[in-house]
């Protein structure tokens, strides 16, 4: 078993997950990188300071039934896992009235049920070790809903309910949770977002284009996980919306009704 801290990162092939992988690698962590695109994961591995402590494990969150075996494979890679960063996910750009139910289900399947299946698979390992940390990449829309993101917002809200409960149920096992709520981060998230019929948007949203660099987001994630913060908001002035919604909900609704953000 390695002496290094081991972090398993899902969605490490692109965007925030890729940047987080490089940040943790630079800090001397051993890494397990997961996603579907193995070639992209190899590229991330090649950019790490040393490839000796970086393993690749292909994973499709839509295949919940595979999570127990994948988790055993992941644990065997370094003999233990200290941190699981649940980062993989897909977004949405479509109105409720136009969106096929199959698209709502797909968003829940990947963002919520896939994440839950992986959590249940690794939980016995964390309980046995009497330590373990979950980083969970939610979104600002895990705190409120905005147009064009109904099922995406629902899937992220669901993660808050699930992981707030897990934190309380496993406090005595020294298992900790950081819920991470990014705003606009410059990644391919809008390009990959599902539209009403389930096809990808294939367009970079203006808000994402002007958003925070993934490397800066990864730095904030790194700090929040090291400090075991319970929840962190990451981004620009869009993060103020969380406080507006909490303390002035009617004003928040009025602003949202006029907002032009797709
Ligand atoms: N960018 C933002 O503005 C923003 C804001 C709030 C929250 N977020 C959240 O941040 C996380 C990372 O997104 P990103 O912005 O970095 O977007 P991204 O560049 O599109 O990256 C998404 C990652 O998720 C992986 N993924 C997608 N479907 C998967 C599946 N079925 N199984 C396994 N992995 C899958 C992708 O890898 P493969 O395609 O190789 O499988 C990719 O590595 C997501 O949870 C997203 O909801 C992003």
Automatic annotation (TrEMBL):
Keywords: Oxidoreductase. InterPro entries: KR_dom, NAD(P)-bd_dom_sf, Sc_DH/Rdtase_CS, SDR_fam. Residues 5-188 form the Ketoreductase domain. GO terms for cellular component: membrane. Gene3D superfamilies: NAD(P)-binding Rossmann-like Domain. PANTHER family: DEHYDROGENASE/REDUCTASE SDR FAMILY MEMBER 7B, DEHYDROGENASE_REDUCTASE SDR FAMILY MEMBER 7B. This is Short-chain dehydrogenase. It comes from Algoriphagus faecimaris. The lineage of its organism: Bacteria, Pseudomonadati, Bacteroidota, Cytophagia, Cytophagales.
């Amino acid at each position: 078993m390695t002496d290094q801290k081991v972090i398993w990162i899902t969605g490490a092939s692109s965007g925030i997950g890729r940047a987080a992988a490089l940040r943790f690698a630079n800090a001397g962590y051993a890494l397990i990188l997961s996603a579907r695109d193995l070639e992209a994961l190899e590229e991330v591995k090649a950019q790490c300071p040393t490839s000796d402590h970086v393993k690749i494990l292909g994973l499709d969150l839509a295949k919940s039934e595979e999570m127990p075996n994948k988790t055993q494979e992941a644990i065997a890679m370094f003999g233990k896992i200290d941190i699981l960063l649940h980062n993989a996910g897909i977004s949405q750009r479509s109105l409720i009235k136009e969106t096929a139910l199959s698209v709502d289900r797909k968003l829940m399947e990947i963002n919520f049920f896939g994440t839950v299946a992986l959590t249940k698979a690794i939980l016995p390992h964390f309980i046995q070790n009497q330590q373990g940390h979950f980083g969970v990449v939610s979104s600002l829309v895990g705190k409120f809903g905005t147009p064009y993101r109904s099922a995406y917002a629902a899937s992220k809200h669901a993660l808050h309910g699930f992981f707030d409960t897990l934190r309380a149920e496993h406090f005595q096992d020294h298992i900790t949770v950081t819920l991470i709520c990014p705003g606009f981060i410059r990644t391919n998230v809008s390009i990959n977002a599902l539209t009403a019929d389930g096809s990808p948007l294939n367009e970079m949203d203006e808000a994402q284009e002007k958003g925070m660099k993934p490397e800066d987001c990864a730095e904030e994630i790194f700090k929040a996980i090291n400090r075991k913060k319970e929840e962190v908001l990451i981004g620009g002035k869009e993060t103020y919306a969380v406080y507006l919604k909490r303390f002035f909900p009617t004003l928040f609704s009025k602003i949202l009704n006029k907002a032009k953000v797709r």
